[in-house]
Design goal:
265 residues, mainly alpha, 12 helices
Length: 265
């Protein structure tokens, strides 16, 4: 009887542990919620982002899955099955966002970078490099994409390509110290290139000219001739005192004198 009871207890313990293991990946901890809020929403929430920046943010909670499952995989690196499972969920979360959001959504490069990180951890270096490259093509200011692509290229034995990637990153982001530092750490000695020219906005279009000239329009040659300025007869000017540049007009001076006389009386 005791043996049966002990066996039952062990079986229930194993079963409950299995259930907990199965449920754990879908449970979001308060720490993960805070991380996602800071990482994606800048301390705001999804409702605020949807209201102020568009409907693409409706799908961004899947990006949170992409980020947090990658961090979970790091904690389970000794368990290859759990490690691969979490990375698969992470990649799937990024793919969902990339599939549902519009092509011009400004967060897509960041999603591609995190997808590439998970792919590289899984050993898929080729797809990871393509994800980083696509992020750069979308946004040349995405510094993390250059860094991750260079690391991936170096791991594939492509040291010269890695240095070229970092140089291109510096050219497009001349103030990014992380790119310059990593370039030197990889043995780069070439001088940093000149910053890429920034796109100059086109000038505002000139107002369209009417194809028909007005009937009373003067010729251009006559319009350019400056005519003498005629005095304004409707508004005569008050004469000023001779030899006094800053003195008031006579009418104002008389008012002042009258007011002074009133006070003295």
């Amino acid at each position: 009887m005791r043996m049966w009871t002990a066996g039952l207890w062990v079986g229930l313990t194993v079963l409950s542990a299995g259930v907990a293991l199965a449920v754990e990946p879908f449970a979001e901890t308060p720490q993960e919620t805070a991380m996602c809020s800071a990482y994606m929403y800048g301390g705001r929430d999804k409702a605020f982002k949807v209201k102020t920046e568009g409907e693409d943010w409706i799908h961004m909670h899947h990006y949170c899955d992409c980020v947090r499952y990658r961090y979970r995989a790091l904690r389970k690196i000794s368990d290859k099955y759990a490690f691969k499972y979490d990375l698969g969920v992470a990649i799937g979360g990024c793919d969902y966002v990339l599939d549902k959001t519009s092509k011009g959504f400004y967060m897509r490069p960041k999603v591609l970078v995190d997808k590439g990180r998970a792919q590289r951890m899984l050993g898929s270096t080729g797809p990871a490099a393509r994800s980083f490259l696509e992020a750069i093509q979308m946004n040349r200011s995405e510094v993390s994409a250059y860094l991750e692509l260079a690391e991936t290229q170096k791991g594939m034995g492509q040291g010269s390509q890695a240095l070229e990637t970092l140089l291109q990153g510096v050219r497009n982001n001349p103030d990014a110290m992380a790119l310059q530092q990593r370039y030197r750490e990889m043995g780069g000695k070439e001088a940093f290139p000149e910053p890429a020219a920034k796109a100059v906005p086109p000038p505002a279009p000139a107002p369209a000219e009417s194809s028909q000239a007005p009937q009373n329009e003067t010729p251009a040659a006559e319009a350019r001739q400056e005519k003498p300025r005629e005095p304004d007869e409707a508004k005569p000017q008050e004469p000023s005192l001779t030899g006094c540049r800053f003195c008031p007009p006579e009418t104002v001076k008389r008012k002042w004198e009258d007011s002074f006389k009133g006070k003295s009386e």
